[in-house]
From TrEMBL:
Residues 255-269 have a biased composition (Basic and acidic residues). The chain crosses the membrane at residues 212-233. SMART domains: IG, IGc2. One of its GO terms (biological process) is homophilic cell adhesion via plasma membrane adhesion molecules. GO terms for molecular function: cell-cell adhesion mediator activity. The keyword Iron does not apply. The keyword RNA-binding does not apply. This is Neuroplastin. Residues 242-269 are annotated as: Disordered. It comes from Hadrurus spadix. InterPro entries: Ig-like_dom (IPR007110), Ig-like_dom_sf (IPR036179), Ig-like_fold (IPR013783), Ig_I-set (IPR013098), Ig_sub (IPR003599), Ig_sub2 (IPR003598). Residues 41-107, 116-199 form the Ig-like domain. Keywords: Disulfide bond, Immunoglobulin domain, Membrane, Signal, Transmembrane, Transmembrane helix. Residues 1-22 form the signal peptide.
Length: 269
């Protein structure tokens, strides 16, 4: 009985020793288990410190890091892993292992980012609206769409939510057979529940089907009005010319009459 108790205590104490040893590793996280939020294109620094001298190896997502990439450097004397010009693919789960027995885990996240939309988009009745929400981050963000303050659900046949060109779920909003009721401010919200939610918005305007004809009809109306003005002006200008020609002929007729009267006067004498 005593031997069994000693064996149980030995196993328990061994477990305690391993537990204490594992927690003796101090990482450069803000607090244990909080992870590190990485900024893209900047330097990522990971550090694991222990009070015992040991050999350190690093793993990412279960794969040994050999620092063959020129951007990655491992400093054994400082227990650091440095990644220059960090990329989205550098996010993940890192594990630092001391003497191949004791380890600590550091999760590296990436802030969610959305590529901005144009300020507005003009479409015509009957057109199809296609909006792509290009969002990045780690963990992969979840996409939701809003029309104004209302969440868009693909319950109508003409509304679809599909993966975008980056294969992000619900990253593309498609609305076919647009009408005036579809005019609104559309918002894409991306949230990975770790680094917080971000959004991008665009104002969609819907024009009449005949909107393209209005400029042409306006030009035609202007030409018609101009022709009418010219016609009226010419008509008024020609009429005084006729009046002046009539008045010019009156003195001549009087002179002719006077000449005809001269012989009569001479005959009386």
């Amino acid at each position: 009985m005593f031997g069994i108790w000693n064996a149980f205590c030995l196993i328990l104490c061994s477990s305690c020793l391993i537990f204490v040893s594992a927690n003796s590793i101090i990482t450069n996280e803000e607090y244990p288990g909080s992870g590190i939020i990485m900024d893209l294109s900047k330097t990522l620094t990971l550090q694991c410190n222990t009070s015992q001298p040991s050999t350190l190896t690093w793993y990412k997502d279960g794969v040994l890091i050999n620092a063959t990439d020129d951007r990655i450097s491992i400093f054994q004397d400082e227990n650091k892993l440095i990644v220059e010009k960090a990329e989205l693919e550098d996010a993940g789960i890192y594990v630092c292992v001391f003497n191949e027995t004791t380890n600590a885990t550091i999760q590296v996240f990436v802030k969610t980012f959305i590529e901005p939309f144009p300020k507005s988009l003009n479409l015509v009745q009957g057109d199809t609206l296609r909006l792509q929400c290009r969002a990045t981050g780690f963990p992969v963000p979840k996409i939701t769409w809003q029309k104004g303050d209302e969440i868009i659900n693909a319950t109508e046949e003409r509304i679809q939510l599909k993966p975008n060109d980056k294969n992000l779920t619900d990253g593309m909003l498609i609305i076919s057979d647009l009408d005036y009721e579809d005019r609104a401010n559309y918002v894409c919200v991306a949230d990975n529940e770790v680094t917080g939610a971000v959004n991008a918005s665009i104002v969609v305007r819907i024009k009449d089907k005949l909107a393209a004809l209005w400029p042409f009809l306006g030009i035609c109306a202007e030409v018609a009005i101009l022709c009418a003005i010219i016609f009226i002006y010419e008509k008024k200008r020609v009429k005084p010319d006729f009046d002046e020609s009539d008045t010019d002929q009156i003195p001549e007729s009087k002179n002719v009459a006077d000449k005809d009267k001269v012989p009569d006067v001479r005959q009386r004498k």
